[in-house]
């Protein structure tokens, strides 16, 4: 990026590793899941987020994330701060309604992940701030999630389409549903498909409801064409992801198996 002059040459490089011992954790306190921003993806994979069905999407993201070497070193805070539509933890954390703690020498503030993101590589973070923690409410029982990433191969992929799906069931009914994609509207950043969520909430995931959800997504989503693929193909794959993601989350809730 620097070599191609797509970002300016930084005047200083700051090594965050001395903060590692304080900002590397996954804990659940008073119904809130807290992840330290310097927690690596590998450390997350050793935590309860990869064992509890309510967080199943974390396992999906990890399995398709870059290479093992990257998973050992990349931090969840770095993935979020990168702020691209290919930042997989952003897409997933949007469906958990995550919040970020931003800290600087002048104080601490908390913002939602959604308001943090402005556009590709543009966020509301100030030059002197760090993301120190990611948090979200512990989901109720009867909840699970799924993350789907489509590409022409399985690994080291950016994803032609990525989607995250969060579902809470009450009996046969969908009590809560949250859906995010790598891109929903014009902004090249992950976002929630709220209109599609409205088409699913309170209903049973029958074939007709899934079809209705697909047509809601078609009305809500604006896909783009680029050298990778066409907007039409992206939209088709988004609808397929939606269907598969919702059904996978539902299956996980009923089977208890990730
Ligand atoms: C081959 C390859 C494959 C990849 N595959 C994937 C993939 O499948 N999915 C995916 O999502 N990404 C992928 N990536 C992107 C990359 O691995 C991630 O974005 C990574 O998580 C960055 O984390 P890091 O800790 O290394 O951050 P860094 O690279 O060190 O930092 C990234 C940016 O975030 C800033 N930053 C870092 N930590 C903080 C903080 N705590 N507070 C504020 N700013 C901060 C840095 O200043 C920098 O601007 C891939 C990258 C490569 C090279």
From TrEMBL:
Keyword Flavoprotein: yes
SUPFAM superfamilies to which the protein is assigned, alphabetical: CO dehydrogenase flavoprotein C-terminal domain-like, FAD-binding/transporter-associated domain-like
UniProtKB keywords: FAD, Flavoprotein, Oxidoreductase
Gene Ontology MF terms in the entry: FAD binding; oxidoreductase activity
Family annotation (Pfam families): CO_deh_flav_C (PF03450), FAD_binding_5 (PF00941)
Residue intervals of the FAD-binding PCMH-type domain: 1-141
Name of this chain's protein: Molybdopterin dehydrogenase FAD-binding protein
